[in-house]
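In response to reviewer comment 3 from the previous cycle, which asked for concrete evidence that the modeling workflow produces usable outputs, we include below a single protein chain processed end to end. The sequence was submitted unchanged, and the resulting structure tokens are shown without manual editing.
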Amino acid sequence: MDDGAAPGIREHAVALPALRAHVVEAGAGPPVLLLHGFPQSSLEWARVVPLLAPHAHVVAPDLRGFGRSAAPDARYGLRELREDALALLNALDLERATVVGHDIGALVAMSLAIEHPERVSHVAVLSVPPMQLRVRPSMVRSMPELWFQYALATPGLGERLLRSGRLTRWMLASFGDGVPDPDARAYVATMREPARARAGSRIYRQLVVPEFLRIVRGAYRDRLPAMPILVLRGADDLVLPRDVLDGVGRHARDLRIHDVPGAGHWVVDQRPDEVARRIVELAGLAPSA
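The workflow returned the following structure tokens.
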């Protein structure tokens, strides 16, 4: 997201206890925290932020290892990314926020809602199911589509794949129409940097694969957050079969599931208008005075 790309958008660095984070902010009013997916950055939200800014104080950080945030030689587990998000809320003096996450950002959003519910007013997860799902046959059938996760998680191999750029390009072009250029080129170039390739491999080794196994074992099944939850799925998403979401809201007070037409896994890039509309609806946002 370039400086001055839209009126009122501010970009700056925020010093967190374990990370120097690059953050995009816009608007005023109720806070909305936007957490991007892999292998993207806050640039993913470039077409959503201007749509939300008239309604909310929008905050879109680059997660550790991505974009212009630091890529420390450290752990990249769910706890670390969740604590980064919590530290950012603290640094910006935001008591509670609507938290929206896509892909790995959705896992961070759900974890923040589970572990710190007092800081989350609403939560939205995009392109992944809530962590309380029950494994279904269709999910098992879709697992061959995820072969790359285990390759990226493999020490040495994962870094080499990301530094080559080929796997990143393939990911961004797959799973339903893909991410448009020049955004995709920017993500590929960033992930080729050695420190970010190392971080990307650790994300899969320390967050994605372990959390998938915990989800399958039912570790989160009885921990559905109490605040309103929105699940957005691209209608053409081949990796997330629709029936995987059946029954996930059985114990939730307020869980809404919506398919987004004309989108696959990269729903934010392909339908920013619908994503923004659903966030406004979820959080009950009104135009700022």
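The domain at 10-141+218-282 is CATH 3.40.50.1820 (Rossmann fold). We consider this sufficient to address the reviewer's concern, and the full set will be provided in the supplementary archive.
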